[in-house]
Specification:
Low-confidence stretches: none
Number of strands: 13
Order of helices and strands: EHEHEHEHHEHEHEHEHEEHEEEH
CATH architecture of the largest domain: 3-Layer(aba) Sandwich
Number of domains: 2
Radius of gyration: 20 Å
Strand content: 15-25%
Bound molecules: NADP nicotinamide-adenine-dinucleotide phosphate
Largest sheet: 7 strands, mixed
CATH class of the largest domain: Alpha Beta
Mean pLDDT: 97
Structural class: alpha/beta
Distance between the termini: 19 Å
């Protein structure tokens, strides 16, 4: 049995991770940290994920585990010392935040308006998308789990880029996310009265923090329009692409089949069939559909459960690779 520890276990992604690990046959959760719920038992916070005593982050010893998951908010100053300490003790790290996803510190500084807080750690980090970086993840000590929105842009776009199908390197990614994407902390924006029976766009254009990793992995210039859907979980992205004139439905289908036929968690629909959120909710799948609109133009739609393949499921997939387990263990 491998032993793992979870920092931020009481958040939305932390609980999802605990649910997945509870059915993982070769992993045992050795510690789970919380801030406001420190001292309580897990069963008091979420009844079906075991009964560990939740501890404060300072109380746990990462030397006692093989892997730590850091499910902490992206801007918490506590993250870097936690990651440093884990790596020094020999534990591997899967980080959920966007701190280590942008490989180039200059791009990080330009996008965030400040230097990277730990460039030495950034050098160690591997972008945690197994479908693109499987072999590097197997060897990694620090994996930066991807953002949830980027997954629904990168996986549909990379095969088109590699095939040379795009006529225009500027692509519009129009995404809709359930409110759990914003985490469990209270905020006016995600509170029931503000989201129920309404629908809104936010951070549109070139400002959302996930844009940099989408562009890093695709090499494209992306116009990104995220929206907040009045549902709890799931992301649906609609991507508008201009294609070279010779590309038709058959060519698109062939390129996606070639890219993903062997991928356990990427499912491509036949041309003209489009995926829905309910196809992926509570699963580790990404489903991609595509449809020609007119010659030279297509719409690609991708769906993911932001808490599973978009966060905790992908983290388990990465952990399986880092520990030499079969990649799908505990996820099918
Ligand atoms: N939600 C998603 O769909 C999603 C998808 C992909 C990636 N992510 C990323 O995953 C990370 C976690 O997201 P989440 O949605 O699970 O967040 P969340 O629901 O807000 O949970 C955060 C967790 O961290 C704890 N925490 C907060 N500040 C802390 C600190 N300074 N020291 C120790 N513990 C602290 C919280 O405890 P308290 O409740 O006591 O504050 C809670 O357990 C974020 O970086 C996020 O960007 C989220």
């Amino acid at each position: 049995m491998a032993r793992v520890g979870i920092y931020g276990a009481t958040g939305y992604t932390g609980i999802e991770l605990l649910k997945l690990l509870a059915r993982h046959p070769t992993v045992e959760v050795a510690f789970a940290t919380a801030r406001s719920a420190a001292g309580q038992r897990l069963s008091e916070v979420f009844p079906i994920v075991g009964d560990l005593r939740l501890t404060a982050a300072e109380e746990v010893d990462p030397a006692s585990v093989d892997v730590v998951f850091t499910c902490l908010p992206h801007n918490t100053p506590d993250l870097i010392p936690i990651v440093q300490r884990a790596l020094v003790t020999g534990a591997k790290v899967v980080d959920f935040s966007d701190t280590f996803r942008i490989a180039d510190p200059a791009v990080y500084a330009a996008r965030r308006g400040k230097p990277h807080p730990a460039p030495d750690l950034l050098e160690l980090a591997v972008y945690g998308l197994p479908e693109l970086h499987r072999e590097r993840i197997r060897q990694a000590r620090l994996v930066a789990n991807t953002g949830c929105y980027p997954l629904t842009a990168i996986l549909p776009l990379v095969p088109l880029v590699r095939a040379g199908f795009l006529a225009d390197p500027t692509v519009i990614v129009d995404s809709k996310s359930g409110v759990s994407g914003a985490g469990r902390s209270l905020s006016l924006k995600t509170h029931f009265g503000e989201t129920h029976e309404t629908f809104s766009a936010y951070n549109v254009g070139r400002v959302h923090r996930h844009l940099a990793e989408m562009e890093q992995e695709t090499g494209l210039h992306i116009i990104f329009a995220p929206h907040l859907l009045p549902v709890f979980r799931g992301i649906l992205s609609t991507i508008y692409v201009n294609l070279k004139p010779e590309v038709d439905d058959t060519a698109l289908a062939a390129v996606y089949a070639d890219a993903y036929a062997a991928e356990p968690f990427v499912h491509v629909l036949p041309a003209g069939k489009l995926p829905e959120l309910r196809h992926v909710q509570h699963t580790n799948y990404v489903v991609i559909g595509h449809q020609m609109v007119e010659p030279g133009r297509a719409i690609v739609v991708a769906v993911v459960d932001n808490l599973v393949k978009g966060a905790a499921g992908q983290a388990v997939q990465n952990m399986n690779l880092m520990l030499g387990f079969a990649e799908t263990t505990g996820l099918l």
